[in-house]
Task: inverse folding
């Protein structure tokens, strides 16, 4: 064989090896079972439940902490896990001043002491090895001065990312929407323009994707809208204006009788849109203001709640059509004890939720609305912002001051453990494998035996 032919075949083998290696990596990522990961806000089925996780019950700063990693900047976004990778968003104040913006001391007084930044923030996506906490890659997707401030309990990185197995969708609200591959390469980005939230509380609705379509809901004090983008390119497929003010609930995607519904919980109406074309399938009035809890479903009904300046919980049939307000398509309604910030959890045929942000728990029969556990105090906890999560017959309730109370998933209230960490927690917990991941203001914890 001539030297040129040997070189050709050597090159062919090398190239084939590279292609094969890439195929192996792609297949490994494609073969991840979503039920064993936590690929979106509220977990595999968007209800706060993992059917496969076996997390520990007991821990402390000195017990069962597998790793603890400081996270630079500030963010309330829930970590997202896909296979061996954990993704987390944060916003880091660079300190670099934009001289065209007024300094905080020169700004008018606002509610809750909210000020508008005059410095550039780095909007960062971190990818960590979920087993060790070691950084795999770090991507600064933008450096901007945010268009408004946020409530002291919020952040500029409060929208949880979404993984569809190939792409990672990261939404920093008014600071941009970014699509990356799982190795941190930017595939596309969209500037959807600024919004003005109520009293400049900040943004927090997470993106959701289904069958190659990405859903973004933007309810604010201007013209609210919902839009669906092509997940591969970021191009708009459809958009609809919404008659709503600020809300923070993440849309729920559910398929019923071959039609994929996008259900959005909000103050004026709960609405269901057809994912294909944006047509309105059904709507129902009756929610309170500042709607934040995300809906959950059992496949027959969707359960929607709100709890600021009023209380509302309702079970709406997924077979609904048109305006079902006050009809028998609403199976039941409650008007007390409903959540403000935390979302409800549906587990083992029971529906659990907190009263406002207080450490008071209610459990109802989702089929009938019968109250089985009525407004019961969770001991040792001041308040909740993070939403409850569940696995292995247990519910995990993480308080803002670092405590997590583990209870039996039953209509009888039974505490199994109360665990304390030295951080402040507003992000919701994540359950994957034999671990629980808890994002505090300062640190990200991996709890496992």
Result:
């Amino acid at each position: 064989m001539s030297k040129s032919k040997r070189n050709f075949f050597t090159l062919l083998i090398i190239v084939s090896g590279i292609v094969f290696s890439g195929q192996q990596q792609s297949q490994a990522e494609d073969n991840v079972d979503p039920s064993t990961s936590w690929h979106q806000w509220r977990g595999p089925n968007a209800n706060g439940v993992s059917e496969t996780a076996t997390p520990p019950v007991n821990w402390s700063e000195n017990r069962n902490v597998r790793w603890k990693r400081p996270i630079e900047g500030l963010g309330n976004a829930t970590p997202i896990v896909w296979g061996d990778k954990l993704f987390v968003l944060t916003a880091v104040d660079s300190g670099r001043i934009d001289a065209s913006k007024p300094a905080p001391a020169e700004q008018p007084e606002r509610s809750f002491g909210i000020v508008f930044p005059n410095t550039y923030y780095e909007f960062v996506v971190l990818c960590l090895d979920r087993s060790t906490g070691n950084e795999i890659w770090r991507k600064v997707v933008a450096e901007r001065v945010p268009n408004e401030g946020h409530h002291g309990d919020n952040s500029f990185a409060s929208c949880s990312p979404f993984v569809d197995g190939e792409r990672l969708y990261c939404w920093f609200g008014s600071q941009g929407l970014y699509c990356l591959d799982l190795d941190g390469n930017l595939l596309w980005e969209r500037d959807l323009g600024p919004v003005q939230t109520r009293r400049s509380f900040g943004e927090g609705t997470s993106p959701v994707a289904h069958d190659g379509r990405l859903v973004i809901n933007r309810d604010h004090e201007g013209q609210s809208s919902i839009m669906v983008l092509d997940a591969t390119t970021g191009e708009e497929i459809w958009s609809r204006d919404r008659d709503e003010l600020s809300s923070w609930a993440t849309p729920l995607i559910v398929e019923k009788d071959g039609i994929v519904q996008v259900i959005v919980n909000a103050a004026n109406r709960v609405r269901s849109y057809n994912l294909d074309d944006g047509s309105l399938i059904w709507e129902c009035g009756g929610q309170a203001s500042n709607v934040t809890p995300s809906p959950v479903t059992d496949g027959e009904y969707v359960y929607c709640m709100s709890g600021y300046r009023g209380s509302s919980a309702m079970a709406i049939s997924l077979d609904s059509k048109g305006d079902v307000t006050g009809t028998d398509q609403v199976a039941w309604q409650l008007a007390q004890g409903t959540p403000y910030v935390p979302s409800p959890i549906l587990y083992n045929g029971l529906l659990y939720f907190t009263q406002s942000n207080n450490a008071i728990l209610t459990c109802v029969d989702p089929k009938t609305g019968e109250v089985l556990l009525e407004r019961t105090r969770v001991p040792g906890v001041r308040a909740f912002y993070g939403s409850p999560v569940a696995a292995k017959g247990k519910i995990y309730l993480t308080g803002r001051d670092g405590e997590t109370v583990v209870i039996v998933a039953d209509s009888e209230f039974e505490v199994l453990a109360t665990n304390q960490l030295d951080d402040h927690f507003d992000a919701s917990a994540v359950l994957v494998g034999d671990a629980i991941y808890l994002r505090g203001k300062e640190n990200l914890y991996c709890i496992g035996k």
Observations:
- The CA atoms of residues 398 and 404 lie 4 Å apart.
- The two ends are 59 Å apart (CA to CA).
